[in-house]
Amino acid sequence: MSDTGFSPADPAARAYPFYRDAHFMFRLIARGRPYICPFEPIVRWVPPGARLFDIGCGSGLWLMTLGTLNHIETGLGVDTNARALQIARQAAARLAKEEPRPTLTFHHTTTIADWPDEQFDVVSLIDVLHHIPPRNQNEFLDAAWRHVRPGGRLVYKDMGSAPKLHALANRLHDLILSRQLVHYISVDEVAEQLKASHGVILHQEAWRRGVYAHELLVVEKCK
Q1: Angle 111-57-38 (CA atoms, 0-180°, nearest 5)?
Q2: Which pLDDT value is given to residue 37?
Q3: DSSP characters for 77-102?
Q4: Which residue among 39, 57, 61, 70 is least enclosed by CB atoms within 10 Å?
Q5: Separation between Cα atoms, residue 108 and residue 208, nearest integer Å
Q6: Per-residue exposure over 113-150, b if at least 16 CB sit within 10 Å of its own CB, e if not
Q7: Ranges of residues in the chain whose predicted pLDDT is under 50
Q8: Helix 61-68 to helix 82-96 angle, to the nearest 10 degrees?
Q9: What's the confidence (pLDDT) of residue 210?
Q10: What is the torsion angle, in degrees rounded to the nearest 10, for the CA atoms of residue 148, residue 79, residue 168 and residue 183?
Q11: What's residue 29's pLDDT?
């Protein structure tokens, strides 16, 4: 695991102006995003022009970042938080006024059954799986994988369960902001599950940034 420090690189910075009317707390968290959940190690694993499905999109900052970079063709985000999705839609409506821009849409879902019945070039699962109860994590991951088209890829990023001090910081962060005690799943376990489902590991990485630990896994689905 490497310690990347506090990098000034922040591809999300281009998206911040589109959230100018969002609640102060959201804007504060968004500004801290490069340290809490950095995007710069992830963007390069999304092929230009991809159709992307973002599971657990929250307020849409990841899709908005890709949209302001003109990096994707279309983006669909789903989440259970209706208030966050409203913020995402307002930001996307502002982005849509600037040409040319990809089409970004956001849907409210409460179960896996509500997800769209189609496959995508890229499915992203960023800091989501640790919020899922342990008994449902494997099923949730399988459902995400089914939405990857053959030859497409799953971009999986989550908080690290080691070192212990950094994992504790991650847990405290979610306990304070999400009011939830989270449950980590080993990135190696995720990799093994996807390899058993005809996945090829393209990249696996772990790093630290400040008090937070991060893990990244990119898996391609065999054709």
Answers
A1: 140
A2: 75
A3: EEES-HHHHHHHHHHHHHHHTSSS--
A4: 70
A5: 32
A6: eebeeeebbbbbbbbbbbbbeeeebeebbebbbebbee
A7: 1-8, 176
A8: 10
A9: 63
A10: -70
A11: 72
Tens-place pLDDT, residues 121-137: 999 999 999 889 889 99
Residue type, 11: P
Structure tokens at 136: 């449902």
Structure tokens at 153: 């890829």
CB-based burial, 1-40: b 16+ in 10 Å, e otherwise:
eeeeeeeeebbbbebbebbeebeeebeebbeebbebbbbe
Query: Among 139, 114, 148, which Cα is nearest to 217's?
Result: 148
| Residue bearing tokens 């970079």 | 69
Which residue has tokens 């494997």? 138
Type of residue found at 96: A
The pTM assigned to this predicted structure is: 0.88
